[in-house]
TrEMBL record:
Name of the featured protein: TPM domain-containing protein
InterPro entries for this protein: TPM_dom (IPR007621)
Naturally occurring in which organism (per UniProt): Bradyrhizobium valentinum
Segments forming domain TPM: 25-142
Superkingdom: Bacteria
Amino acid sequence: MSIRRITRHLLQHHWRRRVAFPPDALVRIERAIKAGETAHSGQLRFVVEGALDGAPLFHNQPARERALDVFSQLRVWDTEHNNGVLIYLLLADRDVEIVADRGINAKVGAEGWEKICKEMEIDFRAGNFERGVIKGVEAVSRELAAHFPRRGDGSNELPDTPVVI
């Protein structure tokens, strides 16, 4: 367990999340998710967490493990075609993770998701959080459209609203 990481999470707390993602930015991200879902049958969720607290922090939970927990809690895995994708951003660690269900993950793979994360991180380092997330949403949507094009009524299985923790 790193004292430096604990301090960063405790001091940063949730204020940075509100600065990086004001309500109007979250609305625009939701619109980008909805727009992307017009081209594919996949399901995309975005979650931003300012900092860990409690057990996840004191058990030194890495961002990837936290993203997997959130993926499960939000039931992103529970889609008809196993094509749910979570973009998870942990601001205190400056870490973005993409977790994908087995249907889409088998087609894109870890390298494909990592490439999208790296592109997002370029904008994040420049302080352009909204732009980075929207670029990530668009890139994930392109992958979903390539492998799971929209068919039928295109029912929306999961909410498009960003989740703020």
